[in-house]
Amino acid sequence: MMQERVLDWLDERLDLSSLRHFIAEKKVPIHAHEIWYYLGGLTLFLFAIQVASGILLILYYRPSAEEAYESVQFIVSEVQFGWLIRNVHSWSANLLIAVAFAHFFSVFLLKSYRRPRELTWVTGMLLLFLMLGFGFSGYLLPWNELAFFATKVGTGMAGAVPIIGDGLMRVLRGGDDVTGATLSRFYGLHIAILPALTTLLVAGHLLLVQRQGMSVPLEIERRARAGKRIPDMPFFPNYVLRDVLAWYVAIALLAALAAFYPWELGRKADAFAPVPPGIRPEWYFLATFHTLKMLPAYILGIEGEQIGVLGMGAAAAFLVFVPFLDRRVSRGEPSPLFTLIALFGLAYLVVFTIVGHYAE
Amino acid sequence: MSVFLDWLRSILLGSAILTAALAAASPAQAQTGGARAPNECATCHGGLSDAAFVAPAVAFRGGDVHQERGFTCADCHGGDPTVANKDQAKAPETGYTGIPRGTDQIAVCARCHSDAAFMRGFAPRQRVDQASEYAVSVHGIRLAEGDLNVATCASCHGAHGIRTASDARSPVFPTNVAATCASCHSSESHMAGYELPDGSPLPTTQRAEHEMSAHYEALTERNDLSAPTCNDCHGNHGAAPPGVRSVANVCGTCHAVFATKFETSVHSFVFEAGCVECHGNHAIVAPPPEMLGTSEDAVCSQCHGGDDDPGFLGARQMRAGRDRLRDEIARTADLIERARVAGMEVGDEVLALGEVRNHLVLARTEMHAFTPETVQPIIDEGLSMLTEIERAGEDALDELRFRRRGLAVSLGAILLFVVALALKIRQIDRRRLGAAD
Questions:
Q1: Which CATH class is domain A2-153+164-276?
Q2: How much is the pTM?
Q3: What is the mean pLDDT of chain B?
Q4: Are residues B171 and B179 in contact, defined by beta-carbon separation less than 8 angstroms?
Q5: Angle value at C-alpha A254, between A252 and A258, nearest 5 degrees
Q6: pLDDT at B36 over 80
Q7: Are strands A298-299 and A302-303 parallel, antiparallel or unpaired?
Q8: Which of B345, B407, B411 sits opposite A76 (nearest CB)?
Q9: What is the residue extent of each domain of chain A?
């Protein structure tokens, strides 16, 4: 009764009838691959957790080389439930990137990027890169030893970009080396620039998904064209409740990880200390890191690292433009070449991440 | 009195050698610039069939510091290096001296190395008192007495192929010093006839003993070039055994606080050989825990015994206090480590533990004053700090248990909600399928 009165009150002022109609009419197709639909919602949910926990961390975090480490130490040891917020933020960041990658590969293999969803794919790819940017910039913020030296290596790789490499590295570091200036820069990037870009892209991505509805696999689409009915379910409440169920499972997993595997703070960064053994980036950069490490010093007279960085840039550009390159699938025909590319990419990431983890 | 007169005579004799050396000739004229004059000595010696004659030329040209700075064979040996004919090159008017031995060798080296103005042109920071130090060393004194068996400059530095002391290939580089000294001092035949002040034969086991020591381990295993080797205690150019009364001063050069505490102790009046009485000399090792106390293997019990002996009681009290602090540190560190491994933030406690460990070191240092009443307050303060750390560690483990209980409750609530949600989904799905039918 109360709910109806509130909705009526809002309706009178905002005219929500079209939205209510949209929600009531929106359907989600049911088929063997529908499970992959939940990854998008889960990614968004984990991003929301990042925003909420990140805002709470900002209340105590101090972004300077002198105070950053101590402020995180204070958060996890003195602030009420600070440990929980920090651990949830760290674990959720990793789960978010894992789920975002799973979402990316599921969309790639199901060819959901085909016409008319090219822009949904492009915004999604840009969002994936932004998530990696969040991971890279956030890793340095506790200002601990591992993060300091890993950032040194990571920003050093930017220096391998031909022509603009040196300038790019200096812009990233805010100077010649990783210092407090880098920390301030990464902090600004992490809490202002990247969130602003992400908000815009998420809004665009969601708008496109809602406007175009869920994509179905190619063979199901063919059956639909042949006049066969595709079973579906109402978006609200049937699909939304399933989404919420997945979110609760994610919350339970996050809570368990935060309580049993707290994110270690390590030792405070010291620019004059010797580089500790086992310096490597976060797991989602291990494959690229290990690839660059394996390249010979020179390939055809050009620096191996430069070729590696160029190759990765080309691969990223290729991925952004996949919908425009895969012409067969746009015509509704199978495109085994792009399936192979996706499978090769998945195998490469898995194998090189594992090898990179165990490499000396 | 006669010993003193002998000593005085030796010093005067040594000084005479030094004066003679300085007056012998002006320093050699090194060719530091421009084209070098031909060195026929090296050319001729390099082509001889006898390896003994070839080796000096090869060594001199193979990285000798003097050769690199423009000195030639003639600067030490005399002769005319510009003449290829052997007889002309070594003619008496050329000042050819042959191989300088004994006091002559000291004089040859001192001609340059004792001339501050000359040395400024090559090694301005190098000392120029080696010859005067040598003159008062045991080696120098014996040489002055005519003993040609003793070490001279070349015995330690080499004759040809001399390198700076900072060159790791030099026989006087810290890691090589022990072997250099041992080339004579470990040789029973070479040392035969030499005696200690008490008349006993001079031992030849010093190097073997030194290799068992903590100092040797620091020098060779940890590459700590500041760790002492022979010359750090005995001197180098002025080599002499540290006299019994000066041992504490020698050890105190590095172990300054220990030496200061020892100076204030009653033992400083009793121990003839200072530090060596308890710690030994060449074979010195890190003091084992049982060294202090009243057990049979403790050094204290070698002199002290019985409950009516204040020294015995003091040793027992200091050992008990130190052992308690050490054991409590280990127990508390284990507690903090458990909390750390479980992911709790205990950085402050780890730092505080370091501070308590410093107290243990302080207590060990204070023990060299042998006054239990000054050791006990340090032990007590350490134990009091440990109580605080232990409380913080227990709090961290309590917090961990609270978190896990909280997690169990939360997971239970989430599980209930998930089950309820699944049932609700099933219900509305059935309702929808029913409506569709």
A1: mainly alpha
A2: 0.68
A3: 86
A4: yes
A5: 120
A6: no
A7: antiparallel
A8: B345
A9: 2-153+164-276
